[in-house]
Amino acid sequence: MVHTFFTFSVACILSISLAFGQSADSLIYAEGNIINATTKEPVTARITYQSLPYGNKMGTLNNNRYSFPLFDNEKYALIVEAPGYTTAKYLIDPAEANGNKVLKDIELTTGTPASASKHSVGHVMRLDNVIFQVGRSKISEDSYSELDVVVKMMKENATMVIQLEGHTDYLGDAKENMKLSKARVEAVKEYLVSKNINKSRVKTKAFGGTQPLSRDDTPEAHRLNRRVELRILEN
């Protein structure tokens, strides 16, 4: 199985390389580990990368390490997010490569990125680690840790009112996408209410696929478009 996956991955990279007019031998890769700055232990995080300045090449990973090619020797923006940690943002520059690799471990510092003191009324947070079953509104258990950060934020700020905003990709039937995005934010609201958050403090709004972050027709871009965002209405 491992051999099959490795063969498939190599084939994909070769195909993408040819599509961008670049041979696999000339590719530079960005690689590194995601670790706790204090304990040095691995941290599983959502890793988003995109080429600069236009972001026409992008991808997302959920892992404690990353590896991706820097096509056309372009610089890339790297954003690393994990529940309970401060978001880390880096610039990956192929000019810093040693051989064909830019090696950069990312150290995350503990913090409360959802802290009310850092988010004023109108601020929007992307709940990147809220995961649903494909085509359904059932929340994965892997999402609970991030949702518990939201619960903690709201319990520490008793007057806070939020709005959960659901987005799908723009593929498929628009009405079904709208229906799915509504069901998903309602599922998130239900989880918060189950943790003793008053339902009157959690509003919901569905957008379907009407507000994509990217129009690129790639699996990575479609994953990026499928998201739940939290907007602070009162604080």
Describe what you observe in this structure.
There is one protein chain. The chain has helices spanning 2-19, 144-156, 174-194, 219-225, and strands at residues 28-36, 45-51, 58-63, 65-70, 76-81, 88-92, 101-103, 106-108, 124-126, 161-167, 202-208, 227-234. With 235 residues, the protein is of the alpha/beta class. The protein has 2 domains: 25-108, Immunoglobulin-like (Sandwich); 116-234, 60s Ribosomal Protein L30, Chain: A (2-Layer Sandwich), CATH 3.30.1330. Strands 1, 4, 7 and 8 form a 4-stranded mixed β-sheet that branches. The protein is globular and about 55 Å long. The N and C termini lie far apart (51 Å). The model is unreliable at 1-20 and 112-117 (pLDDT under 50).
